[in-house]
Amino acid sequence: MATATQEETLGFQTEVKQLLHLMIHSLYSNREIFLRELISNAADACDKLRYEALDNDALYENDSELRVEIEVDAKANSVTLRDNGIGMNRDEVIKNLGTIARSGTAEFLQQLSGEQQKDAKLIGQFGVGFYSAFIVADEVTVRTRRADDSSEAGVEWRSKGEGEFTIAEIERPARGTEIVLHLKDDAKEFADEFRLKSLVRKYSDHIEVPVRMPKVETAKDDDGKEIEGSEVTTWETVNEATALWVRPKSDLSDDDYKAFYKHVAHDFSDPLTWSHNKVEGKLEYTSLLYVPGRAPFDLYERDGARGVKLYVQRVFIMDDAEQFLPLYLRFIKGVVDTKDLSLNVSRELLQQDPQVEKMKSALTKRSLDMLKKLAKDEEAYQTFWNTFGSVLKEGPAEDYANRDKIAGLLRFATTHNDSATQDQSLAAYVERMQEGQQKIYYIVADSFKAAQHSPHLEIFRKKGIEVLLLSDRIDEWLMSHLTEFDGKAFVDVAKGDLDLGEIEGEEEKKAQEETAKAKEDLLQRVKEALGDEVQEVKVTHRLTDSPACVVLPENEMGFQMRRIMEAAGQPLPEVKPILELNPDHALVSRLEGAEGEAFGDLARILLDQAIIAEGGHLDDPAAYVKRLNALLTA
Fold it and tell me: 396, 407 in Cβ contact below 8 A?
């Protein structure tokens, strides 16, 4: 190796220091993944060179046989891994090895607790990559040169994985990257060729780039005896080195698919399910799509990196081709390989290509069908829903064409079992509907408990009518884009006039009308006492135990959504609620007999209580407490 020049010592980004420390300790029991991560990075570097060489064949430098090589030096207790891919220049080395250029990194690190088992799972969500080298090495040396640079532009990077790293210019005739791992004393097991070969076959057998290791062959005489001094070192390819997605499904095992997922998703855990398909005809492509078993840490960053790996005729094009799936399916991982796009395709060209839109439509349906199939396994699907359900709920607003399919995949908590677990499908709800019930009823609240104990459910519990209990922040927005399911309209029980249809008999409806007429004087007095605080005062038939409730007009934004919008600084026009009174309640009877200031105070107490029951906030809580104390001590 040529002598290094212009050596410089730099400090790691703060987030890197934290991640390295926690990762080295948390992933101790899963150390062998370092090889998978480094081979995966090397294969990506080869893919990127192949793509860039489409426009500039000179980048191959008369060596177009892309490969990854691994050598072991047991005496030095070291492992060397090299590739002849795209390589890096000095700025790229500092950027890629000294920082973590991902949004949300600080938030992610705040979740790390120092508990090894918990942190290992979180780090797996974040992705390990190059830094996995420090799980087994106490010092790492990287030598690299970018394919379009001269041999004098080589770079050497060294670090012990602590607070700093050293970088220097070196002469490097070969393009690509070489990583030397100086193994820790307790990691000597990895300075063994047989051990590393088994790990390559276990984790990286599916990678299209050949992974080679040296093999010593000795010539033999006619009697089969080895000839001393005739040893020759050759390179042996130890992985399958064929793109997994182009191999017949009959040749692939579940373990093959799982290993390939971990390469594609940089994940530690197995996927929940996958779908491998080849489409022929006017549009030809192969897709291998996965549903992960857990969410990445940046799942809710809608602007974050997402999408599938795109290949054209097995030539890598880009990592995160988001154009092939809608945003609400951003958790889907996998590969798409097509013959119908130009090899020099870019993100801008993808957006303009009509073939992409056709593939997006087909891949979206394929993904939804995959989830429908997964739903047959209730336990596995519940795992999926607990992880990605809130993201899938974005679907009906974003994808009108598949709205019915998405609705069939949604899961809800309901009054059927009063469990906070969202495990009930709309199909199951419809099966349990009462005779004469024509609508699907739901309520939206800030929490499951608030929804579960809402006064609006009292009449539904009395009559045994099931209600969906919605408490996710996205739920009201979701329901504004779901109008019906299986021909049954959705109805918010806290908005508009309550109509139970045929479930209520004619006698009940007639009795309600008579009661409302008999209470007209009381309703008028309450409206005058409350003035502009309410839009209207009515007799209710929603309540059986509570004295009052507030209701919004049918087409108004709900209380939960209003609070979310206001918290985000969005000004909203004032909406006056409708106050509904339960004529059979003792407090309403007491109100009817009150006069003057006592009447006004009691009317306001009933209104304030109804607002509190909806999870609302009072403009003057002290006044409410004063009125309530006066009522209690009267």
Answer: yes
**Residue 295 reports pLDDT greater than 80:** yes
Q: Which pair of tokens denotes residue 44?
A: 């990506």
Characterise 239 by phi-psi region: left (phi > 0), alpha (psi -120 to 50), beta (else).
beta
Q: What is the pLDDT of residues 391-425, one digit of tens each?
A: 999 999 999 999 999 999 999 999 998 889 999 99
pLDDT tier, 302 (very low <50, low <70, confident <90, very high otherwise): low
Shared-domain flag, residues 74 and 183: yes
The pair phi, psi for residue 428, each rounded to 5°, is -65, -40
- Residue bearing the bigger pLDDT, 568 or 247: 247
Check residue 103 and give its pLDDT.
Answer: 43
End of a domain among 175, 202, 237?
237
- Please check the confidence at residue 104 and state whether its pLDDT lies above 60: no
Q: Are residues 443 and 455 in the same domain?
A: yes
Q: How far apart are CA 210 and CA 50, in angstroms?
A: 14
Give, for 141, the enclosing helix (H) or strand (E): strand 137-145
Q: What burial class does residue 518 get, using C-beta atoms within 10 Å of its C-beta: 0-12 exposed, 13-18 middle, 19+ buried?
A: exposed
Angle between helices 586-593 and 520-530 in degrees, nearest 10: 80
The domain spanning residue 448 has which CATH number? 3.40.50.11260
Which residues constitute the domain of residue 590? 506-633
What is the per-residue pLDDT for 363? 96
Residues 428 and 363 in one domain: no
What are the residues whose beta carbons fall under 8 Å from the beta carbon of 31, sequence distance 6 or more? 135, 136, 187, 190
Which neighbouring-strand residues pair with 546? Answer: none
What would the DSSP string read from start to end of 213-271?
A: EEEEEEEE-TTSPEEEEEEEEEEEE-S--S-GGGS-GGG--HHHHHHHHHHHHT-SSPP
Report the SS3 class of residue 446.
coil
Strands of the 578-581 sheet, one edge to the other: 536-539, 578-581, 548-551
Inside any domain, residue 386: no
Confidence class for position 347, pLDDT limits 50, 70, 90: low
Q: 383 in a domain, yes or no?
A: no
Distance CA 417, CA 622 (A): 38
Is the residue at 268 inside a domain?
yes
pLDDT score of 120 = 47
Helices 586-593, 596-613: axis angle to 10 degrees equals 150
201 and 228 together in one domain: yes
Q: Which of 502, 537, 555 is the last residue of a domain?
A: 502
* Per-residue pLDDT reduced to its tens digit, 419-449: 899 999 999 999 999 988 899 999 999 899 9
Tokens 């890598």 found at: 316
3-state SS of 430-442 is: HHHCCCCCCEEEE
pLDDT at 504 > cutoff 50: yes
Backbone angles phi, psi at 207, to 5 degrees: -70, 135
User: In the numeric block, which tokens belong to residue 609?
Assistant: 């209580």
> What percent of the chain has a predicted confidence (pLDDT) above 70?
89
Single-letter residue type at 284: E
Closest CA to 209 of 458, 341, 40: 40
For the chain, how many structural domains are there in total? 4
Say if strands 285-291 and 273-279 run parallel, antiparallel, or are unpaired: antiparallel
CATH number at residue 619: 1.20.120.790
Q: Is 323 or 82 the better-scoring residue by pLDDT?
A: 82
- Higher-pLDDT residue of 554 and 59 is 59
Helices (runs of H) and strands (runs of E) counted in the chain: 23, 22
